[in-house]
Structures are given as C-alpha cells and as structure tokens.
Amino acid sequence: MPGYSEDKEAVLRRLRRIEGQVRGLQRMVNEDAYCIDVLTQVSAVTHALELLGDHLGHCVRDAVAEGGPDADTKLREAREAIERLVRS
Predict the structure, then answer these.
(1) Class of domain 1-49
(2) 8 A C-beta contact, residue 40 and residue 67
(3) How far apart are CA 21 and CA 42, in angstroms?
(4) Sign (positive/negative) of CA torsion 43, 48, 53, 59?
(5) Where are the domains of the chain?
(6) What is the distance between the alpha carbons of residues 13 and 10, in angstroms, rounded to a whole number?
(7) 44 alpha-carbon distance from chain centroid
(8) How far is CA 31 from CA 19, 28, 65, 75, in A?
(9) pLDDT (tens digit, 9 = 90+) per residue, 5-55?
(10) Cα–Cα separations (whole angstroms), residue 8 to 11, 41, 54, 57, 58
C-alpha cells in the first residue's frame, strides 16, 4: 500500500495546487517574467512535491524494518529519486 494512502485526498489537493502553479509558470514564461520571479515559483512547486518525504517516512522505513530484498529495492529507488531531484 502506498505511503500516501492515508492522506490520499490531501495529496490530490496538493497535486491540483501544483498543477495550477505550473500553469502559472507557463504563463509567466510566455509573458517574459523576470527570471527570479519564475525561479521563486519553481521553488514553490518543488516544495509542494513532498511525496519523496512521505515515501521515505513510510514505504522505505517499513521495508528497511522488515529487511530482505525489498529493503534494498526501496533504498535504491529512493536514492535514484533523490539523484533525479538533485540533477533537476
């Protein structure tokens, strides 16, 4: 069961907010907004994507507690997700 299952409605609300923020970013770029203003909004979108923390606090933690190959898989997935976020 996904780590966000208990807060699925909150996650969906957050995703709808992010969707609106991304549309706003597109509009800002189309209107040639100041770079710092665009970056500030990008930061807000990134902050709203707290799913990685949820994943670490639930799925990865539980898999590590149980041990075995699933723990290794969850840790690898988390590492790869963090690497993708750092690169972007």
Answers:
(1) mainly alpha
(2) no
(3) 8
(4) negative
(5) 1-49, 50-88
(6) 5
(7) 12
(8) 19, 5, 50, 42
(9) 777 888 788 788 888 888 999 999 999 999 998 888 888 777 766 667 777
(10) 5, 24, 11, 15, 14
